[in-house]
Amino acid sequence: TSSSTTTTTTRSFFASSTDHTTLVANAVVHRIGADAAGKREYILIPHGLDLELALKVDKLHLGRIYADNNCIYGAKVVQRTLGTHQDVCGKLLAAALEDASSSSSSQKEPIYALASLQGLSKWVEKEIVQEEEQQESNGNDPTTHYYQSTIINQLKGTDEASFEAVKAIATGKPRPGHSVVGEGTYRDGEEGWKQLATEFTQLGLSSEADLYLSNGAYLDGIAHLADTSREGLLDAGGAMARLKFDL
Question: What is the pTM of this model?
Answer without folding.
Answer: 0.84
